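Quick question: what would this complex look like in 3D?
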Amino acid sequence: MANLDTIIKDLVIANRILAKEDVVDAYGHVSIRHPDNPKHFFISRSLAPELIEKEDIVELGLDGQPVRDDKRALYLERFIHAAIFEARPEVNAVVHAHAEDTLPFGIAAATKLKPVIHSGSFIGPNVPVWDIAKKFGATNVLVTNMAQGRDLAKCLGSNSVALMRGHGFASAGRSLIEVVRLSVYLPRNARALMKAKQLGGQIKYLSQGEIDSRARGYSPYSVETWRAWHYWATKAGVGDMVTRPDAPVAVSKKSTKKSAKKAAKKSKSAKGKKR
Amino acid sequence: MANLDTIIKDLVIANRILAKEDVVDAYGHVSIRHPDNPKHFFISRSLAPELIEKEDIVELGLDGQPVRDDKRALYLERFIHAAIFEARPEVNAVVHAHAEDTLPFGIAAATKLKPVIHSGSFIGPNVPVWDIAKKFGATNVLVTNMAQGRDLAKCLGSNSVALMRGHGFASAGRSLIEVVRLSVYLPRNARALMKAKQLGGQIKYLSQGEIDSRARGYSPYSVETWRAWHYWATKAGVGDMVTRPDAPVAVSKKSTKKSAKKAAKKSKSAKGKKR
Amino acid sequence: MANLDTIIKDLVIANRILAKEDVVDAYGHVSIRHPDNPKHFFISRSLAPELIEKEDIVELGLDGQPVRDDKRALYLERFIHAAIFEARPEVNAVVHAHAEDTLPFGIAAATKLKPVIHSGSFIGPNVPVWDIAKKFGATNVLVTNMAQGRDLAKCLGSNSVALMRGHGFASAGRSLIEVVRLSVYLPRNARALMKAKQLGGQIKYLSQGEIDSRARGYSPYSVETWRAWHYWATKAGVGDMVTRPDAPVAVSKKSTKKSAKKAAKKSKSAKGKKR
Amino acid sequence: MANLDTIIKDLVIANRILAKEDVVDAYGHVSIRHPDNPKHFFISRSLAPELIEKEDIVELGLDGQPVRDDKRALYLERFIHAAIFEARPEVNAVVHAHAEDTLPFGIAAATKLKPVIHSGSFIGPNVPVWDIAKKFGATNVLVTNMAQGRDLAKCLGSNSVALMRGHGFASAGRSLIEVVRLSVYLPRNARALMKAKQLGGQIKYLSQGEIDSRARGYSPYSVETWRAWHYWATKAGVGDMVTRPDAPVAVSKKSTKKSAKKAAKKSKSAKGKKR
């Protein structure tokens, strides 16, 4: 059970990071697949990501319904997660959000979102745009059932991100830390591309070879990836919750304690209650 | 009287949210109609929204004048509210503000502000631009009497928002929570459209059917709407003031207390004095 | 001497507001003319505006030199202030700053900065661009002597603001509160115009009649102007320093004390030391 | 050894400033050459700049390898620093970062980054763009060995900054305070130029004479430069660590103590632990 506890703690951290880094606001969510039961996943009950605690996490099945009898309200769009976990066995974490600077690329026909900066390489060479109206006509634009979720998952295909026209994006990763990082740098890559277009002339995108090389070198618990996870968690006020299961380099007791202290002090939002 | 007390508390929360979310600054205001007397409405005395407390709220008539003898200075532009309440019996709350990213759409002739993102659907398919100069010539651009207020209300018609050329916007809703949400997402929709225009090509606006579908599904006390209200209030440091009169899902004592505590700790501005 | 004390306190407040509102950073300054001796003015010693306290204020003559023997380092560009005070007897306060969004208008030849929003009206119908190179050739672009200051003042003429090519702006007002307000809204007006240009089509500027009407109605201690001053000071953490010498509407003891308390609590930067 | 201690303290301050001013995030680094041994330099171990303390600083040789036996993980891209120190004997400090608004200029072919504002003059008249793919083909875009570092240093030549296509920039200065200032104002200069391009018409760049005049007048411990360093350190919460070895104007005990106190109170991130 220690493992599940870590996973749920990491999911809380992920929510706080996405809120602090402006990927989600009152809306948007992140989920992680159950490590022992691939047909279940964890996600928060209906709550703004910045306010989520461990006890807010619920366990859902691949139909998007709660596994246990739980009367708490759930996210309307939990089917995005269910359908992607269903379609992609290798995916272990999913984010859905409305990060502002990704929106223009789902609305304007002329410019395709592609990686232009190294930290954006993980969005992959192809970012499809899903338009719910194509199959479902005049909806409220939300993904509120499995049929819609599956259509989105189909459009996503084997890619890492799909834009959702007039709405936001869905991203999928092999690990939680990976999908969070991808989702934080997605809007940054979008801004770099938008501004480059304004400067004019030919745009130098990352080459396929560069995208592949970066993907090959990626590891969710590498020193470099963990540096960002640790930093973002600290900024979000939950640095004291960070644990690193398979640290290749030992984190000394002293340094951990210090970081936790600093995290609590530094956090602008100072959610410093005992956990 | 408990009801009135709740309404005034909600109006304070609305002011703080609009300030925190950068919809208002030193200027801008929000009002709510008296629940028992449709010819009266509540609004703050002349004060920056971020500083407003319950005792700053005054009661005005549909002529924009105070109902009780009150020597405190009032907003010059309270006639915007009076005239909209007069013209629109179904409207119960009004916002007037100068949110920066709405301004370009009142100034530039070429691009009409329309919903391009789902959270912007509530601005409605038609956002008229009111130019005070058309009828009133060379004024100080402010709405300082009922004649000007009525001309604005006429331009607003049955729409949810009117832009005011070189000045800002006025928005109207059936409930306070609705008009606040609309006003928070209005600048975001404006930014998404501006950036989409820069990316070029055809713009995919929300369709009329999508706008209608979202309007039909909207409820000011739905789980989803309340999630944002609760989150924004918490961010603005007044999470402990939030009450939910007709909660479809019970908010447990424990969770409420926790949220209030977190709100007080999290609030950057920490207005944590007893209310 | 009480009067001088108030003026120096107001100058500290002005510095803090300009810092908090991103008009100045490590650089930029604001000055006020001596009320009893028009040939003297007050300005801080060389220090970042956000850090300035009452004891940092020095008294200079219209030659830009200190009146008293003072060994503390002074702003290199104090001659901007000296020369404008010399040329414009009706001007009582001057700001020089590098607010980021004013810079493009001093660099790009095609678009003239003019008022497009009501809060920008005070920059006036004509904002000249001064280029130091025209008369002084290849300098370090700074105004470091009276000859350069006088050339800038000549370019400013009877206007409220002059842009300084590749550098920033200088603004002048009849009162401190006026020049601060103008300087805060100047970058906002610049942004609104830049974005309107991007939206395309004809731009509706404020008309001359509207600019005149607003200028006529302006008073540095009106309820409306003071609302902003009080709010900005509170945001900047110096709300407790605010005093209002000629208040047309009495500020109750209670409300003042409350505001001061809130200011101290709210201030993100919490410079809460006793003054 | 007092000298070394000061240098390491200054390097911590530099890291904190670059983080606070949004030049670096989880990634990016700054280094300083050993004052007594030009073949060594100091840089942090692999850690986000905002979290760095004195004990995180390591000493490396010009091959990018640690001088002492140290098992802590190092920055992958430390070879950027090593190669620039190797190629440029007069350079004593180096920054590598991904500041967002510098990125478009490395991606878009049409617009060259050049100084348009006085604070941007220190980037120099020529900012080359280095493309790692030109010599090394399809890499992960990172500079992970001396060969790549040397190729970048060659492209940098005698300039102050080189943009790195799809990645970021490397900047070099005679002193730490100089390279930090350059790196803070580099993105600001980039934004001013981008926006000027949007306004249209001819762009007025700083002239060669102006760039030269400013470079001649620059001194890392001038009153003006130190004002920014002191201010930025205070904002970043490490104002109490600032010392000024060769102060031309005495900093009074009282003022220093006051500043340190204010720094601790003001710092939003309040890392107020004893050092």
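Answer marked as accepted. The CA atoms of residues 107 and 166 of chain D lie 6 Å apart.
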